[in-house]
Amino acid sequence: MTPFNLRDAPAPTLRHDLRDLLATLPRIVADPVPLGDVRARLGERPVWDGATRTLLWVDVESGLVHRWPDGDPARALAPYAAGSQVGIAWPTASGGVLVAAAAGLRTLTGPVPHPPVLPAGRRWNDGATDPAGRLWLADMPIADATAPGAVHRLTPESCEVVLTGVTCGNGIQFSPDGRWMYLTDTVRRVLYRLPYDLASGTPGTPEPWFALTPDDPMPDGTTVDADGSLWVAVWGTGTVLRIDPTGRPVDAMRMPVPLTTCLGIGPDRVGWVTTAGSPDPHLGEPGPADGAGSVWRVRLPDEVRGVPVVPVAGV
After folding, report:
1. CA-CA distance, 164 to 148, in Å (whole number)?
2. What is residue 44's predicted lDDT score, i.e. its pLDDT?
3. Rounded to 5 degrees, what angle do the CA atoms 232, 47, 113 make?
4. Of 37, 98, 176, 250, which sits with the fewest C-beta atoms within 10 Å of its C-beta?
5. What's the whole-model pTM score?
């Protein structure tokens, strides 16, 4: 298929001013608690592996994959060193863990079939599986997050570039029924929704679904819940927004540290928010904050349920 250039997508007709949103939206009482002693340079993408009851998360810039049984840092397994910057860690159908690192795509025990080869100077940033277990990954230039990257679809048989022109691609998620794919262009401050053919793994034309003003802080990682709402971490603000399936902001969670990157949803109304402590200076440096770089355990509203994470098929 011919990749779709995100630059050709329609422009947003509505952009929200984050300050106005935070002044008017209800605030979630999340009671955030920093866990353990690990302080990541750039913590990202907490994933609850329900099959093994393990919280997976990564420190992008330190190249480490963290594994916490029952979400408990006191029981943490030794971090896996990927040897380069790492974008995500994700459960596999065989019971392992797939790691998307700049040096290559592999499991904790060996290589994967048909691995994509990234051009020099690029790394994986974010990704997720669709409900059929296909793995989707966004790449980005290491030296310039504002330069365009691409989104790849990986199956046991192939790897294809499906979208181009994505600047700091984040927030790849799928609606619980598999009808919609979501993608965040962080630099453009736009979250796109794409109609999705689950049978073939083919997305349709992206449409702007939620957008912030060009001068606002940037949206980072997202997570979909069982009701189809999207939880959006906003970099530099200590905020996680909840957006309902129509694209309407519902409420906001405020954290004690500014560099929030992603929310993961676990069982029993428990969530985890990854944060950054000392990222590369080109990502912004808001100054020191107690607990920056921690994984924060949060309490979610009563009605919130997670969507079971689908393992990567064929691995």
Report:
1. 7
2. 97
3. 115
4. 37
5. 0.95
